[in-house]
Write a structure and sequence with these properties.
The chain has helices spanning 15-26, 39-53, 67-81, 105-131, 158-178, 203-210, 221-233, and strands at 6-9, 30-35, 57-61, 86-89, 139-144, 182-189, 242-245. It has a seven-stranded parallel sheet, with helices on both faces. α1 runs parallel beside α2 (39-53). With 252 residues, it is an alpha/beta fold. It has one domain (6-251): Rossmann fold, CATH 3.40.50. It is globular and about 50 Å long. The chain contains seven helices and seven strands; from the N terminus they run βαβαβαβαβαβααβ. 45% of the residues are buried. β5, α5 (158-178) and β6 form a beta-alpha-beta unit.
Length: 252
């Protein structure tokens, strides 16, 4: 790659991850983008970002259900790039696990692996590179959390909520462990992208949620992307914060 700053974004092929990649590319960062199954979308995004922004982009498959292998893949990519300045933990698994259906350990394990353990292992593997970042304010980790894992859990999402609560604790711990050479923060949406299928993919359920949002609308992937970029590149004295991006949903 070049002497430009480098960002690694997990789950970047589409939706919020693609918006984050696009925002960072527009600010002149080279990119390392992971995907699990969306190889075609990742390839198309790479071509667009290189064409439109003149940055270099590498995409690679990374299964966060296997935290050790995910960390190895990300470290290999960052070493090949020669540096790492920003790490965005965007990839996530989200689905309901009603207690009435029983919760299998394999299901809870996979949610924890993807949403918490892989961010931990990847952060630990990449910490030396982040500490060496030449960015003003040092290297930066930003994770995508969830307002409903901050003490206001949603019904039927016990396993998911536990995994995201663990991610929040990880971010605050990293903020201590990486300082003073790197920072860690999280963005906690209410909703910035509705699920494509399953729970909350229907209009009636979505409207019921929005009725409890003071702004009466959902956020967008771009809203999340701009906040993430600002935390990484502009607000260099913010560390260990979980910033709600919810249109006021927390107040209602």
């Amino acid at each position: 790659m070049t002497d430009r700053p480098v960002a690694l974004v997990t789950g970047a092929a589409k939706r919020v991850g693609a918006a984050v990649a696009t925002e960072l590319a527009s600010r002149g960062l080279d990119l390392l983008l992971t995907f699990r199954t969306s190889a075609d979308e990742a390839s198309g995004l790479k071509q667009r970002l290189e064409r439109d922004h003149g940055v270099r982009v590498r995409t690679f498959s990374c299964d966060l259900a296997a935290p050790d292998r995910a960390a190895e893949s990300c470290l290999e990519a960052a070493r090949a790039a020669g540096r790492l300045d920003v790490l965005v933990h965007n990839a996530s698994a989200y689905f309901a696990t009603p207690l009435t259906d029983g919760v299998a350990w394999a299901t809870a394990r996979d949610l924890y692996a993807i949403n918490a353990a892989s961010p931990l292992c990847i952060s630990a593997a990449l910490a030396p590179l982040l500490r060496d970042s030449a960015l003003e304010g040092g290297g930066s980790i930003i994770a995508m959390a969830d307002i409903h894992s901050m003490g206001r859990p949603r019904k039927d999402f016990a396993a998911y909520s536990m995994s995201k609560a663990a991610l929040i604790e990880l971010v605050q711990t990293l903020a201590r462990d990486l300082a003073p050479h790197a920072r860690a923060n999280a963005v906690a949406p209410g909703v910035v992208a509705w699920p494509e299928s399953g729970y909350e993919s229907d209009q009636e359920t979505q409207q019921a949620y929005l009725n409890r949002v003071p702004l009466r609308r959902a956020g967008s992937p771009t809203d999340a992307a701009k906040l993430i970029a600002a935390l990484a590149l502009e607000h260099t004295y913010i560390n260990g914060e979980i910033i709600r991006l919810d249109g006021g949903r927390w107040l209602a």
